[in-house]
Amino acid sequence: MRDRVAASDPGLLRLAAGLRTVGAIALTLVVLALAGADVPHLVAGAMAAMVSTFAVREKERGPQAVTLALGLPVALASVSLAALLHSHVVAGDLFFVALIFSAVYGRRFGDRGTALGLIGFQLYFVSLFVGATVEDLPELYGAVTTAVVCSAVVRFALVPETPAGTLERLREAFRARFAQLVSAQLDLLDAGPEEADRALDDVREGTARLHETALMIQGRLEEGTADEATARLVQRRVADAEIAAERLGLLLLTARSAERTDTLTLHLPGAPVPSAGRQPVRDAAVEALRRDLRALRLLVRQAGGTGLAQVRNRLLSYREEENLPAAAPAVQDVFRGVGEAARAVLGLRIALDGPQDESDDTPATARSREELDAEDVAIDAVEDTEREEPTGLRRPTTRAAVQVAVGSSLAIVGGELLSSHRWYWAVLTCWIVFLNTSSTGEILVKGYRRLLGTVFGVVAGILLAGLVGQHTWTAFALVLLFVFCMFYTAPLSYTLMSFFVTAALGLLYTLLHTYSMSVLVVRIAETALGAACGVFAAAVVLPVATDRRTNELLGTVLDRLGEVTGAAVDQLSGGPPVELLDQARELDQALADLRAAVQPLTHPVTPLRTRRDTARYVVALLETAAYHARSLAATAELLPTHPSIAADPRLRGAGRRIAHNIEALAAHVAGERTDERVETGPSIASLLEPQLPGTPRYGRVTDRVLRHLQRLDESVMGLARPLKVPVGKAPARTS
């Protein structure tokens, strides 16, 4: 159960956010109730506590405290201006639009600018929601101040969060998801013809979840570790474990088939298990493999013990050729993969938990430790390179601020026509659909999801309001439950989050004695209007079409892919050591951004089926290429410390065509006028065949490098057709 919780909510971030917000609201309500506050100020305090809690995003406690301290005067100024402008409609609307522009523009200043903008906007909305006037300001000041203080008490005392603690829980989540992935791989090995596709889907999902956790750890390393060297070490070990786990899944899929499985099968959603691999393999070696996969899962889950040391030694022995059992070559590859995964787990344990007991080590285990120790010594911290940022209206925050200001102006006008008392719901929806979106398509999908959640939330609000009636504290208890559910489900489903927030607002309306069917119908109408205004503004004012946005991100992914591949091949060819892990993670982050941006194209309701399938295929090919590039980078970083891995100058020629083809793809995606073509040529392996009789062929590690290069070459070539890039034969080149 602990593993399931850790894996479902990495770092317990959603649970902590929900508890922290609910705790702040509950404490605020208790303090205000003891002070004799009336229901409107209880509602205002509860909403202010929620905003002041979720708005603060910094990871370290010091910056969090500074942001909260600055947030209080911003909140008080916001509610004051809302109350003062309550009776001045035009001036109030103009100020609201200016506030919205400033709040969105403030995102360019990082987490603190984003937080202060959120607090300013949301507290203005709270003042409108409770109908605050100038006469109400003293009580409203007390409610808001109490809310901010209670938020600080809960954040720093009752539900504390430290970067080191969060990173520790993320490591636990990585371990749990690693174990779940091994379980899914074991199911894939045993799955019959009817279950094979479902088992493969589970492996895909487990691989994606493990990768997601690795990226989350990457984002927390700087604040959560003692120094940069420790951060680099943990980063290296997490990358090793992730690559080893993904490689093991590919090898298992190949072991089920009569021939080597296309790597794309693991990354393309819905791709079936190859027809030759529908039947599970059953022989003595595969029975031993099942035992060793269960042992690997146990090794991932548990920390130590004599029995576990024996299991670890057995799995690590598969890294030596003489210890491999007699089996088909594809099955032997899986045993090698199990050995590499066990080595990755050992390295992860040492990096996270410190030195391990070596009394039961076998020679194979001792050699693995020596390799890990040599790698640890070689890991050095390097400085990040800064990239040029766009300026002016090309800056995303500036463009979004202009768009949301225009959309909000339209929402105010239209909202006033629908309801002179509830117009601000349209503005709120317009504001929200612009948060964390970058293209018209993303805004359209987000607006649709918010409207859908609102409709269902209104139905729930109607039912609950009728049941709760005027039972104030029962209604507040349900509001707390819905707020927790809202924050817990927010990263998973925007529709669910909208449902819970609308249901909670229906109860708050009941408490304010403004509940009626007509009010909730207006809520739906205002939400639809706000979403429409947001989409219209995004489509007309400085528009960023989904195609343009995805092309920009696709170009970024290709650039990063070319950088990682070129640097890895150069180092594997004997070039000077360079930083590869950070480059690989930049590629992963760029790919994650692209995956999020193509959601409007791959959404189930899209009528453009061919376009949807093409987008999925391109992303799957890029994920396949990224996996092989990460593996090349990881192997290249072992060169300085592993005597068994030797640089091979012939690899430079093998990677030349791949680099050229990636550049050609990037140029066409960027719309550059170019005659460059994607070049075909002989297989990568043939480029390294011995030139003279008796010349020794490459070893097993170089053979693995060639496999990755070959698959990377195939993935890059595969991108030419969907991206409509011409293909031609490679001209003869001299080395």
What does this molecule look like?
With 735 residues, the chain is mostly helical. Helices cover 72% and strands 1% of the residues. The chain has a two-stranded parallel ribbon. Helix 15 (396-418) runs antiparallel to helix 16 (424-434) and helix 18 (472-489) runs antiparallel to helix 19 (494-511). The longest helix has 30 residues, at 609-638.
Q: Quick recap of the structure?
A:
With 735 residues, the protein is mainly α. It is built from 27 helices and 2 strands.
Quote the distance from N terminus to C terminus: 58 Å
Strand order of the largest sheet: 1-2
The level of helicity is over 70%
Q: How many helical elements?
A: 27
Radius of gyration: 29 Å
Poorly predicted runs of 5 or more residues? 381-387, 690-698
- Provide the succession of SSEs: HHHHHHHHHHHHHHHHHHHHHHHHHEHHE
In terms of structural class, how would the helical and strand content be classed?
mainly alpha
Would you count the extended β strands for me? 2
Shape: globular
Q: Describe the main β-sheet briefly.
A: 2 strands, parallel
Mean pLDDT: 83
Strand content: under 5%
Ordered list of secondary-structure elements with their pairings:
Elements lengths: L1 H7 L4 H22 L4 H16 L6 H24 L4 H17 L4 H21 L6 H22 L4 H28 L5 H29 L3 H28 L28 H18 L4 H11 L12 H25 L9 H16 L17 H23 L5 H11 L5 H29 L3 H18 L4 H18 L5 H24 L5 H27 L8 H17 L1 H4 L6 H30 L11 H20 L8 E3 L3 H4 L12 H21 L6 E3 L6
Parallel strand pairs: 1-2
From the structure above, extract its key features.
two-stranded parallel sheet; mainly alpha; 735 residues; 1% strand; single chain; 72% helix
